[in-house]
Structures are given as C-alpha cells and as structure tokens.
Amino acid sequence: MIVEKLREDAGGSDLIAAPQRRAEVVRAGLRAPSWNLTERQLCDLELLLNGGFMPLTGFMNGLDYESVCQDMRLANGALWPIPIVLDVTEEAAKDLTPGTVLGLRDPEGALLAVLHVEDLYRPDRKAEARQVYGTGSRDHPGVAFLLDQTHPVYVGGTVEGVHLPSHFDFPELRMTPRQVRAAMARQGWSRVVGFQTRNPMHRVHQELTLRAADAVGAKLLINPVVGMTKPGDIDHYTRVRCYKALMHRYPEDTAMLALLPLAMRMAGPREALWHAIVRRNFGCTHLIVGRDHAGPGKRLNGRSFYGPFDAQDLLRQFEAEIGIAMVSFPTLVYVGQLDAYLPEDEVPSGLAAHTISGTELRRRLTSGEQVPDWFTFPEVAGELRRSYRPRRERGFTVFLTGLSGSGKSTVSKILNARLLERGGRTITMLDGDVVRKNLSSELGFSREHRDLNIQRIGFVAAEITRHGGIAICAPIAPYDAARKAVRAMVEAHGGFVLVHLAAPLEVCEQRDRKGLYARARAGMIKDFTGISDPYELPEDAEVTIDTSEIGADEAAELILRHLEEEGFVGRRDFATS
Ligand code: PPS
C-alpha cells in the first residue's frame, strides 16, 4: 500500500547528497551565488533534508505553490497543505535564472545545500494569507510574519544537501525521522501515537497522552516543536528540561522523546494536516489532536480565528490518505473532589472543575506563588521556576529620561544609594555624561548619533537585566522610538521602568548648572535639546515626576515605591532586598 511505502521510505530517500556526489555539490555551491537562510528557512531546510517533509524534494516552484495555496495539493496531486517556499530579496533574485544553482548557507555562511533553480515568482502574499490562514489580519502571527517578515521573490527548485544544520543543544534528542523510525523498530514498536506540543507538559498532558496511547494500544512519541513557535512562548531550553524531567513518569518502554525543528505557522486546520504528514514520516501511526490544534489564540477582538474542532474535522477527512489515524481528545479539567482529570463536558454537576491558563501559570511563577501539585509535577514546576524567577530576584532597568537639568543624574545617584543601602543587588549606572565618555565618545548629537547612543545603552542595560542585575540609565533620550526599542530589548529579559523627569524647560534653563543653555541660546552649541532640537514627551512612562515641584530625594522615593509596588524589590517593612 502506498502509505506503508511512504512510511518505509521516509528519510530513506532524504535529500542529503550521497558521499560520492557531495564534493561536487560543495564545489558548485561555493562557486554559485549564495543566500543566507533565515531562521524559518533553516527549519524548513532541515526537515526537507532529513525526510521530515517527504514527499517534497525542495522549495516549491510556482505551480506547486499555487496548487498548495488553492487545493492543499502539489501539482502532481500529493496532499500538502502549507507552502514551503524560499523567499529572497529582489537583490538576491537578480543573479538567478532557471537552470542556475543557488548556494544555501547558514547564518554564519557555512554551505548546507544547493538549490537547483527552476523558477522565480512574485507571490500575492495577501492572497496566500487568505488561502492558507483563512484571514488577512495581522492579528494572526502567521499572517503578520508572511506580510511583514518574508521577502518578495520566491525561488523554486529541488535541493541537494551537504549536511544538516548544526545544533549544539540536546544532541541526544535531535533525531532524524530515519533515526526515530529505527529506534521504534529496535524497540519493536509498530503502533505509535505522536504528541505535538509547543508548551511545557503538565499533569493534564501526561494524563491525556497516556489515555490516548492506551485507547489505541500504541506507544507514545512525544515530539515537541523546538524550531519556531508562537512569539511569546516559553523558550525551548526550558521546555525541553521540563519534558526530560517528566519522562520518568511514563511506564518503562511506553514513551520516547524526540525534538522537532519545525517552524510552526499557527495555521490551525491546515497545520494539523501538515503535522500529521510530518509525524507519519517520523513513523507514527496515530496523532493526538485536541481542541484548537495549532491555532494562534484569539484575535484582538476576543474572537477565535478557527472553530475549536475545525482542525479535527479537516484531518478526519484526510487520515486515510495521509496514513495516520487521528486520536481526537476533549479538553480535560481537574476535579478536586474526585482528585481526577475528566473531559470538561463529563464533570458531574455540582463539582468544581479547575484549570490554570498559561498566563496564570506565568503570573504565579513570577510572583513566587505556589503552583499546585494537581496542576504540574513538582519536578516540572522546579524547572519552570529556574527560568521564571520571582520578580524580586530578576534583573530590571530603571530608565530616566528628561531634559538636560531635569535632575536625572541627581535622582539616579540617590536611587542607586538607596538600593545599595538595602544590599543584595549589583547596580550599574549608565548616566548620560558617563556613557558619552566611555561608550559613545565618538558620537555627536544628530538624531542618528543620539539613536545609536541610546541603542548602546539599551544593549548594555538588557545584558545587565538578563544577568539579574539592576541598570539605572539616565540619558536625555529625546526620541520615543529609541526609548521603545530599549524597552523591547530589556523586557525580553526582565523589568523595564521608564521614569520621565518632567521639569518644564524654563526651570531647567533657569538652573543651567553646566551653563549649557546659555551657550545654546547664544548659538555656541547647536542641536541642543529643548532649544534647537526636539524632545518627544513619553506617553508610556511608568512614573512621571515634575522635578520643579518635587525634590530629588522625594523623586527617588517615588521611584523606589513603584519598584516595591511592582515587586521588583522587597517592601522595606518586610525585607531588605
Ligand atoms: S542623548 O540625546 O540621550 O543621546 O543625550 P545624552 O547622551 O544624555 O547626553 C546629554 C548630555 O550631553 C550634554 N550635551 C548636550 N545635551 C543635549 N543636546 C546637546 N546638543 C548637547 N551637547 C552636550 C549635556 O551635558 C547632557 O547632559 P545632561 O546630564 O542631560 O545635562
């Protein structure tokens, strides 16, 4: 039967060039024009090369692409729901014509494969969004990526691989489809149910995977995605530590863990078909599909992009053709009185059902609150806690902005002293003048140079925050976009508190402790903030203090109080750090 054959062949016909051909491929690839693969393209290439994307033989040409977008099939009729395309810039496309070769390199420039160019085409990405994702809305992360982060020209053709992209993390869990199938065969597993996830696995997931495997008499392949998932998801290092910690909870010889370097699109129903094809290639006979499988969450207006069972309904139509059976699963909830997990529609009336959302879990972790044992095993909670330190143990940045003479340096010195008096934390001061002497001595005061100055401060502050320290920055930072960019950099690692010292210009000018305003008025200093250069008032400051009305000590006190209220530092009544 065709499906059996596909399963046997998958990975056997992977796209890495045979040893006797490899030297020739390398020679051609190194001489040819080259393209440095994006993160998503790297993921796609890896699964093309290792057979995870069987029966694809390369990045889609125009015919396959059109047909996949419209009918979920390649031009030859084979089922394939998601475009796998190589998008490049107009600049890179200039060197390419059908029949030429393109070297595909990793971000460091190492050659991974060559693409034998068949065609170049300029897709209608809005149409692609509607066809593949069912929406043109940028609220959908897959659509936002397609419209804003892909290049305008798609290059189609077959690929010949030199080697797989390198991964240095968790090498023992990074298996190709062929290796996974071989491991299954060694263990004598003939029925295997796959479990797809992009989240940490809690007790409910362990329950449902065990029940699913039991229901169909199969073993279990836990196959989490470690390529690209939804922006904001828990990083894969943390997740993989959680999965590893959980594995001993499965009875011996029932479950295997293997990582999948897939770049998810969050395309819901179409993505469920795609996941099924990939898992079939990894040797699974069954796939668990729950509510809203691979959905992107809710729109900004609170509505969902896909119905909760759309993915199950679509996959049901194609199970036989793909050669994988769906194990559909209801949402399980915990019923405290019974100390058991039940499908949500089977909870006896009068009994309370419990669940904890991802957002609530993160809130509990960062506020140091307990995560109940019914929700997650203590070893998993322990791993999560290592990554999600409570706020008062995490790094943060206080970023003071304001005109020259608004009190930034004085207030930041007092704040520094107050925090040092309490002890237990390391603090780095990044005062405007100090930074300009040490980090930015070659820069002037054009917008470009100011932006570069703030970007450098942001980079350093983000690193300090990442390492659990406190950064106190005090530049003028007159431009909103530059301040927002720093916020984004820092918030990826910890807290960010923007403090606007909002003394009116007249007051700052009156103080004129450095005599700069007088010189600026006399035209001796050009592009002086407030006089001959703009200051964009922040609308996103956590703390705004008019230092013409409030003294520096009191201003520092207000900032400290905010830090206490937000939990970045302990309250003085209770603790000293
Ligand atoms: S910026 O815009 O954030 O990059 O500026 P910053 O790095 O904070 O540097 C401001 C300090 O440089 C002195 N100075 C000037 N400020 C503004 N405009 C012009 N043209 C200028 N020339 C020199 C001034 O002393 C600023 O320090 P503060 O502490 O703000 O008074």
Number of spatially distinct domains: 3
The shape is globular
Mean pLDDT: 94
What's the CATH superfamily of the largest domain, by name?
P-loop containing nucleotide triphosphate hydrolases
Structural class label = alpha/beta
* Main sheet summary: 6 strands, mixed
Radius of gyration: 28 Å
The CATH class of the largest domain is Alpha Beta
Set out the fold topology.
Elements: H1 2-9, H2 19-31, E1 34-36, H3 39-49, E2 58-59, H4 62-71, E3 86-88, H5 90-93, E4 101-105, E5 111-121, H6 125-133, H7 141-149, E6 153-161, H8 177-186, E7 192-197, H9 203-216, E8 219-224, H10 236-246, E9 255-257, H11 268-281, E10 286-289, H12 310-322, E11 325-328, E12 332-335, E13 340-343, E14 353-354, H13 358-366, H14 378-387, E15 396-401, H15 408-422, E16 427-431, H16 432-438, H17 447-466, E17 470-474, H18 480-491, E18 495-501, H19 505-511, H20 516-521, E19 543-545, H21 552-565
Parallel strand pairs: 1-4, 7-8, 7-10, 8-9, 10-11, 15-17, 15-18, 16-17, 18-19
Antiparallel strand pairs: 2-6, 3-6, 4-5, 5-6, 12-13, 12-14
Helix pairs in contact: 6-7, 10-14, 11-12, 15-21, 17-18
Bound molecules: 3'-phosphate-adenosine-5'-phosphate sulfate.
